[in-house]
Protein backbone atom coordinates (compact mmCIF):
# COMPACT_ATOMS: atom_id res chain seq x y z
CA UNK A 1 0.00 0.00 0.00
CA UNK A 2 1.38 3.43 -0.94
CA UNK A 3 2.06 5.98 1.77
CA UNK A 4 0.37 9.41 1.77
CA UNK A 5 2.15 12.38 3.30
CA UNK A 6 1.96 16.19 3.07
CA UNK A 7 4.57 18.59 1.78
CA UNK A 8 4.92 22.32 1.21
CA UNK A 9 7.30 23.97 -1.23
CA UNK A 10 8.16 27.69 -1.28
CA UNK A 11 10.92 27.87 -3.85
CA UNK A 12 11.74 31.06 -5.73
CA UNK A 13 12.56 31.17 -9.45
CA UNK A 14 16.26 31.87 -8.86
CA UNK A 15 16.80 28.52 -7.16
CA UNK A 16 18.10 26.13 -9.81
CA UNK A 17 17.25 22.46 -9.31
CA UNK A 18 18.47 19.31 -11.05
CA UNK A 19 16.63 16.22 -9.84
CA UNK A 20 16.13 12.52 -10.58
CA UNK A 21 13.38 10.36 -9.06
CA UNK A 22 12.12 6.80 -9.18
CA UNK A 23 8.42 7.57 -9.72
CA UNK A 24 6.63 8.28 -12.99
CA UNK A 25 5.91 11.90 -12.00
CA UNK A 26 9.61 12.68 -11.57
CA UNK A 27 11.57 14.06 -14.47
CA UNK A 28 13.88 12.56 -15.39
CA UNK A 29 12.55 9.31 -13.97
CA UNK A 30 14.76 6.28 -13.35
CA UNK A 31 12.73 3.51 -11.62
CA UNK A 32 15.73 1.26 -10.71
CA UNK A 33 16.63 3.84 -8.04
CA UNK A 34 14.07 2.00 -5.93
CA UNK A 35 16.28 -1.10 -5.90
CA UNK A 36 18.78 1.01 -3.93
CA UNK A 37 16.03 2.32 -1.62
CA UNK A 38 16.59 5.77 -3.12
CA UNK A 39 13.36 7.69 -3.77
CA UNK A 40 14.55 11.07 -5.06
CA UNK A 41 17.78 13.08 -5.22
CA UNK A 42 19.00 16.36 -6.57
CA UNK A 43 21.16 19.47 -6.50
CA UNK A 44 19.78 22.89 -5.54
CA UNK A 45 21.68 26.15 -5.93
CA UNK A 46 21.16 29.92 -6.00
CA UNK A 47 19.80 32.71 -3.82
CA UNK A 48 16.05 33.11 -3.41
CA UNK A 49 13.24 31.93 -1.18
CA UNK A 50 13.85 28.25 -0.53
CA UNK A 51 11.82 26.33 2.04
CA UNK A 52 10.50 22.75 2.11
CA UNK A 53 8.32 21.28 4.86
CA UNK A 54 6.87 17.77 5.14
CA UNK A 55 4.47 16.00 7.49
CA UNK A 56 4.75 12.23 8.02
CA UNK A 57 7.08 11.73 5.06
CA UNK A 58 8.04 8.04 4.64
CA UNK A 59 11.69 8.78 3.96
CA UNK A 60 14.89 10.16 5.45
CA UNK A 61 15.89 13.55 4.00
CA UNK A 62 19.65 14.12 3.78
CA UNK A 63 21.19 17.51 2.96
CA UNK A 64 24.92 17.87 2.25
CA UNK A 65 25.57 21.61 2.38
CA UNK A 66 28.35 22.78 0.08
CA UNK A 67 27.67 26.54 0.18
CA UNK A 68 25.34 28.83 2.12
CA UNK A 69 23.42 28.21 5.34
CA UNK A 70 20.11 26.52 6.14
CA UNK A 71 17.86 26.33 9.15
CA UNK A 72 16.56 22.81 9.84
CA UNK A 73 13.49 22.69 12.06
CA UNK A 74 11.04 20.35 13.76
CA UNK A 75 8.48 20.88 16.54
CA UNK A 76 9.93 23.44 18.93
CA UNK A 77 13.52 23.01 17.74
CA UNK A 78 15.76 24.43 15.01
CA UNK A 79 19.42 23.98 14.06
CA UNK A 80 21.82 25.70 11.64
CA UNK A 81 23.26 23.68 8.77
CA UNK A 82 26.40 25.24 7.28
CA UNK A 83 28.83 24.42 4.51
CA UNK A 84 30.80 21.27 5.26
CA UNK A 85 27.97 19.66 7.21
CA UNK A 86 25.37 16.93 6.70
CA UNK A 87 21.83 17.32 8.02
CA UNK A 88 19.54 14.32 8.49
CA UNK A 89 15.78 14.81 8.82
CA UNK A 90 14.16 11.54 9.98
CA UNK A 91 10.93 10.14 8.53
CA UNK A 92 7.50 10.83 10.02
CA UNK A 93 6.77 13.91 12.16
CA UNK A 94 6.68 17.52 10.96
CA UNK A 95 10.06 18.74 9.75
CA UNK A 96 11.53 21.13 7.23
CA UNK A 97 14.37 23.36 6.17
CA UNK A 98 14.83 26.87 4.80
CA UNK A 99 17.67 28.87 3.29
CA UNK A 100 18.84 31.68 5.58
CA UNK A 101 21.44 34.45 5.41
CA UNK A 102 22.63 36.43 2.41
CA UNK A 103 24.81 33.88 0.65
CA UNK A 104 23.68 31.71 -2.30
CA UNK A 105 23.30 28.04 -1.53
CA UNK A 106 24.61 24.88 -3.10
CA UNK A 107 23.29 21.66 -1.60
CA UNK A 108 23.04 18.04 -2.73
CA UNK A 109 20.16 16.13 -1.18
CA UNK A 110 18.73 12.63 -1.03
CA UNK A 111 15.37 11.18 0.00
CA UNK A 112 15.99 7.63 1.23
CA UNK A 113 13.13 5.18 1.65
CA UNK A 114 12.44 4.11 5.22
CA UNK A 115 13.77 0.61 4.65
CA UNK A 116 16.12 -1.73 6.61
CA UNK A 117 19.08 -0.62 4.50
CA UNK A 118 18.98 2.80 6.20
CA UNK A 119 17.95 1.67 9.69
CA UNK A 120 21.20 3.00 11.16
CA UNK A 121 20.20 6.62 10.41
CA UNK A 122 18.92 8.77 13.31
CA UNK A 123 15.16 8.46 13.81
CA UNK A 124 14.27 10.52 16.87
CA UNK A 125 15.30 14.03 15.87
CA UNK A 126 17.23 16.09 13.34
CA UNK A 127 20.94 15.35 13.37
CA UNK A 128 23.79 17.48 12.00
CA UNK A 129 27.39 16.26 11.67
CA UNK A 130 30.53 17.53 9.98
CA UNK A 131 30.99 16.09 6.49
CA UNK A 132 33.44 16.81 3.68
CA UNK A 133 31.49 14.60 1.27
CA UNK A 134 29.35 17.36 -0.22
CA UNK A 135 31.53 18.33 -3.23
CA UNK A 136 32.17 14.71 -4.22
CA UNK A 137 28.49 13.81 -3.94
CA UNK A 138 27.57 16.93 -5.89
CA UNK A 139 29.80 15.79 -8.76
CA UNK A 140 28.39 12.25 -8.66
CA UNK A 141 24.78 13.47 -8.46
CA UNK A 142 25.38 15.85 -11.37
CA UNK A 143 26.75 13.02 -13.50
CA UNK A 144 23.82 10.79 -12.51
CA UNK A 145 21.37 13.50 -13.54
CA UNK A 146 22.99 13.80 -16.98
CA UNK A 147 22.98 10.05 -17.56
CA UNK A 148 19.41 9.66 -16.27
CA UNK A 149 18.35 12.41 -18.65
CA UNK A 150 19.99 10.51 -21.53
CA UNK A 151 18.10 7.40 -20.41
CA UNK A 152 14.84 9.38 -20.28
CA UNK A 153 15.42 10.64 -23.82
CA UNK A 154 16.38 7.16 -25.11
CA UNK A 155 19.83 8.44 -26.04
CA UNK A 156 22.17 5.56 -27.04
CA UNK A 157 25.21 4.81 -24.91
CA UNK A 158 23.88 5.92 -21.54
CA UNK A 159 25.86 4.71 -18.52
CA UNK A 160 23.16 5.39 -15.95
CA UNK A 161 23.52 1.98 -14.25
CA UNK A 162 27.23 2.40 -13.56
CA UNK A 163 26.83 6.02 -12.48
CA UNK A 164 24.04 5.16 -10.04
CA UNK A 165 26.29 2.47 -8.55
CA UNK A 166 29.04 5.08 -8.14
CA UNK A 167 26.65 7.56 -6.53
CA UNK A 168 25.43 4.98 -4.02
CA UNK A 169 28.99 3.97 -3.11
CA UNK A 170 29.86 7.64 -2.51
CA UNK A 171 26.73 8.09 -0.41
CA UNK A 172 27.35 5.00 1.72
CA UNK A 173 30.93 6.15 2.32
CA UNK A 174 29.65 9.58 3.40
CA UNK A 175 27.21 7.98 5.86
CA UNK A 176 29.83 5.68 7.43
CA UNK A 177 30.27 7.96 10.51
CA UNK A 178 26.60 7.37 11.38
CA UNK A 179 27.01 3.58 11.41
CA UNK A 180 26.99 1.90 14.81
CA UNK A 181 29.07 -1.22 15.38
CA UNK A 182 27.96 -3.49 12.57
CA UNK A 183 25.71 -6.42 13.46
CA UNK A 184 24.86 -9.31 11.17
CA UNK A 185 22.17 -7.47 9.16
CA UNK A 186 24.62 -4.67 8.36
CA UNK A 187 27.44 -7.07 7.57
CA UNK A 188 25.20 -9.03 5.21
CA UNK A 189 24.07 -5.83 3.53
CA UNK A 190 27.69 -4.75 3.09
CA UNK A 191 28.61 -8.17 1.68
CA UNK A 192 25.87 -8.15 -0.94
CA UNK A 193 26.58 -4.49 -1.77
CA UNK A 194 30.08 -5.65 -2.67
CA UNK A 195 28.72 -8.58 -4.67
CA UNK A 196 26.37 -6.24 -6.55
CA UNK A 197 29.37 -4.33 -7.90
CA UNK A 198 31.03 -7.56 -9.16
CA UNK A 199 28.20 -9.68 -10.54
CA UNK A 200 30.29 -10.86 -13.47
CA UNK A 201 32.40 -12.92 -11.06
CA UNK A 202 31.71 -16.41 -9.76
CA UNK A 203 30.27 -16.23 -6.24
CA UNK A 204 30.11 -19.63 -4.58
CA UNK A 205 28.59 -20.12 -1.16
CA UNK A 206 32.08 -20.82 0.14
CA UNK A 207 33.45 -17.58 -1.26
CA UNK A 208 30.61 -15.55 0.20
CA UNK A 209 31.09 -17.12 3.62
CA UNK A 210 34.82 -16.51 3.47
CA UNK A 211 34.23 -12.76 3.22
CA UNK A 212 32.53 -12.82 6.64
CA UNK A 213 34.94 -15.40 8.10
CA UNK A 214 32.14 -17.86 8.84
CA UNK A 215 31.11 -21.28 7.57
CA UNK A 216 28.79 -21.70 4.56
CA UNK A 217 26.15 -23.28 6.81
CA UNK A 218 26.29 -20.30 9.17
CA UNK A 219 25.96 -17.87 6.26
CA UNK A 220 22.94 -19.79 4.96
CA UNK A 221 21.22 -19.53 8.36
CA UNK A 222 22.02 -15.81 8.69
CA UNK A 223 20.71 -15.00 5.22
CA UNK A 224 17.45 -16.84 5.83
CA UNK A 225 17.06 -15.13 9.21
CA UNK A 226 17.92 -11.54 8.24
CA UNK A 227 17.27 -11.34 4.49
CA UNK A 228 14.51 -13.90 4.07
CA UNK A 229 16.42 -15.62 1.25
CA UNK A 230 19.12 -18.24 0.94
CA UNK A 231 22.47 -16.79 -0.26
CA UNK A 232 22.02 -18.21 -3.76
CA UNK A 233 18.55 -16.68 -4.05
CA UNK A 234 19.83 -13.31 -2.87
CA UNK A 235 22.58 -13.45 -5.48
CA UNK A 236 20.08 -14.46 -8.17
CA UNK A 237 17.84 -11.48 -7.35
CA UNK A 238 20.77 -9.11 -7.59
CA UNK A 239 21.69 -10.53 -10.98
CA UNK A 240 18.17 -10.34 -12.37
CA UNK A 241 17.57 -6.79 -11.16
CA UNK A 242 20.88 -5.61 -12.57
CA UNK A 243 20.17 -7.39 -15.86
CA UNK A 244 16.82 -5.67 -16.21
CA UNK A 245 18.38 -2.27 -15.55
CA UNK A 246 21.13 -2.87 -18.12
CA UNK A 247 18.63 -4.06 -20.72
CA UNK A 248 16.43 -1.01 -20.15
CA UNK A 249 19.57 1.07 -20.61
CA UNK A 250 19.89 -0.47 -24.09
CA UNK A 251 22.75 -2.94 -23.60
CA UNK A 252 22.87 -6.05 -25.80
CA UNK A 253 21.46 -9.28 -24.34
CA UNK A 254 24.79 -11.05 -24.80
CA UNK A 255 26.68 -8.26 -23.01
CA UNK A 256 24.19 -8.23 -20.16
CA UNK A 257 24.46 -11.98 -19.70
CA UNK A 258 28.22 -11.70 -19.22
CA UNK A 259 27.91 -8.64 -16.98
CA UNK A 260 25.71 -10.52 -14.51
CA UNK A 261 27.71 -13.73 -14.45
CA UNK A 262 26.21 -15.95 -17.17
CA UNK A 263 28.56 -17.45 -19.73
CA UNK A 264 25.73 -18.74 -21.93
CA UNK A 265 23.10 -16.40 -23.32
CA UNK A 266 20.55 -19.21 -23.55
CA UNK A 267 20.90 -20.01 -19.85
CA UNK A 268 20.59 -16.33 -18.94
CA UNK A 269 17.54 -15.83 -21.17
CA UNK A 270 15.81 -18.87 -19.68
CA UNK A 271 16.37 -17.75 -16.09
CA UNK A 272 15.33 -14.18 -16.93
CA UNK A 273 12.07 -15.36 -18.51
CA UNK A 274 11.37 -17.68 -15.55
CA UNK A 275 11.84 -14.80 -13.13
CA UNK A 276 10.15 -11.90 -14.93
CA UNK A 277 7.80 -13.77 -17.26
CA UNK A 278 9.17 -12.03 -20.37
CA UNK A 279 12.23 -12.44 -22.57
CA UNK A 280 15.27 -10.18 -22.10
CA UNK A 281 14.82 -8.61 -25.54
CA UNK A 282 11.28 -7.51 -24.68
CA UNK A 283 12.47 -5.08 -21.99
CA UNK A 284 15.19 -3.37 -24.04
CA UNK A 285 15.02 0.36 -24.81
CA UNK A 286 11.84 1.47 -23.01
CA UNK A 287 9.57 3.61 -25.15
CA UNK A 288 7.53 5.06 -22.32
CA UNK A 289 8.27 8.70 -21.65
CA UNK A 290 7.66 9.91 -18.16
CA UNK A 291 5.67 13.06 -17.74
CA UNK A 292 6.61 16.39 -16.22
CA UNK A 293 5.72 16.57 -12.51
CA UNK A 294 3.09 19.01 -11.44
CA UNK A 295 4.31 22.46 -10.32
CA UNK A 296 4.91 22.60 -6.57
CA UNK A 297 2.34 24.38 -4.46
CA UNK A 298 3.31 26.85 -1.71
CA UNK A 299 0.81 25.18 0.64
CA UNK A 300 0.91 21.74 2.21
CA UNK A 301 -0.54 19.14 -0.11
CA UNK A 302 -1.00 15.37 0.06
CA UNK A 303 1.55 13.29 -1.84
CA UNK A 304 1.52 9.62 -2.76
CA UNK A 305 5.03 8.31 -2.13
CA UNK A 306 4.43 5.50 -4.62
CA UNK A 307 5.74 2.78 -2.33
CA UNK A 308 4.80 1.31 1.00
Automatic annotation (TrEMBL):
<feature type="domain" description="HTH araC/xylS-type">
    <location>
        <begin position="189"/>
        <end position="286"/>
    </location>
</feature>
<feature type="region of interest" description="Disordered">
    <location>
        <begin position="279"/>
        <end position="308"/>
    </location>
</feature>
<dbReference type="InterPro" id="IPR018062">
    <property type="entry name" value="HTH_AraC-typ_CS"/>
</dbReference>
<dbReference type="GO" id="GO:0043565">
    <property type="term" value="F:sequence-specific DNA binding"/>
</dbReference>
<dbReference type="InterPro" id="IPR050204">
    <property type="entry name" value="AraC_XylS_family_regulators"/>
</dbReference>
<dbReference type="GO" id="GO:0003700">
    <property type="term" value="F:DNA-binding transcription factor activity"/>
</dbReference>
<dbReference type="InterPro" id="IPR020449">
    <property type="entry name" value="Tscrpt_reg_AraC-type_HTH"/>
</dbReference>
<feature type="compositionally biased region" description="Polar residues">
    <location>
        <begin position="279"/>
        <end position="290"/>
    </location>
</feature>
<dbReference type="Pfam" id="PF12833">
    <property type="entry name" value="HTH_18"/>
</dbReference>
<keyword id="KW-0804">Transcription</keyword>
<keyword id="KW-0805">Transcription regulation</keyword>
<dbReference type="InterPro" id="IPR011051">
    <property type="entry name" value="RmlC_Cupin_sf"/>
</dbReference>
<dbReference type="InterPro" id="IPR018060">
    <property type="entry name" value="HTH_AraC"/>
</dbReference>
<protein>
    <submittedName>
        <fullName>AraC-type DNA-binding protein</fullName>
    </submittedName>
</protein>
<dbReference type="InterPro" id="IPR009057">
    <property type="entry name" value="Homeodomain-like_sf"/>
</dbReference>
<keyword id="KW-0238">DNA-binding</keyword>
Amino acid sequence: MATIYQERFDVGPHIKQRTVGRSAYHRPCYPPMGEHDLFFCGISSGKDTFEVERIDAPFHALLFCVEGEFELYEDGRSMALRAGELGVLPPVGRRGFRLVGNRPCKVVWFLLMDRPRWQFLPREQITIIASDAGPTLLDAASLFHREADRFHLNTPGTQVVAVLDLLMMMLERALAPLHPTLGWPEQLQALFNTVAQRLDEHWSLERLAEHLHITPAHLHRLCRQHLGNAPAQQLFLLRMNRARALLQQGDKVSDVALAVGYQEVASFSRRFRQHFGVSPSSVQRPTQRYGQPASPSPSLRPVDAGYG
